[in-house]
Amino acid sequence: MSRALNLSNFPPSAEVIGFSARDHYPDIVFTREMLHPPGHSRRSESTRDVMVPVTESLPKRILAIFMELGLLEALGEATQSESRFVARAATYLQMIGRRFKQYWQSYPCELSMDLVAKHSQTRNWQKSTIRCLSWHPLCFKLAVATIDDTVRIFTRNPGVTPILRSSLQKAVTCLAWRPYTGGELAIGCQSGVLIWSVDPTSQITRPLSQ
């Protein structure tokens, strides 16, 4: 069990209150059952747990992998084709795609994650249970991003904890509340920036845009 209680980054309005009032701030506890390793939400793992196994045709598998993981991974699946022509063509195109990617991509994905871990304010970012957190500047809300790329919103009501989760939300690096609004949160991650509109009465919320 990992236990984290952060009282160092309060909203500005919290500085004028006494220390006894800080006892009402949330005591955050994460258990192993609440967290999942990175990549748990991918199709290859999640669908095995919730879907009945079926035999899909190669074109369907290629299309599904292309939509979720990208072109190179889809070409990798195409190399498993029984047709020699299709397998050879996919292997050749995959080789060209990898060389093109290495030429145009300044920082490979692995190096990018290493750079994030190096410059992150969170110590041992890659293995830390809590990746980052952010207090709302005007009201009592605390957003906490965990290692499973899930963001939870803690408020004065312990019975409702909205959970922000998306397939695009991978490698969360930073959080920021929109000023002068009660429920809009920006989440910086590997895919870009996701803008969430947080419903305080709902457990699961969907992103507003990205």
TrEMBL record:
Domain of life: Eukaryota
InterPro entries in UniProt: Aladin, Apc4-like_WD40_dom, WD40/YVTN_repeat-like_dom_sf, WD40_repeat_dom_sf, WD40_rpt
Annotated Anaphase-promoting complex subunit 4-like WD40 domain residues: 124-178
Protein name stated in the entry: AGAP010685-PA
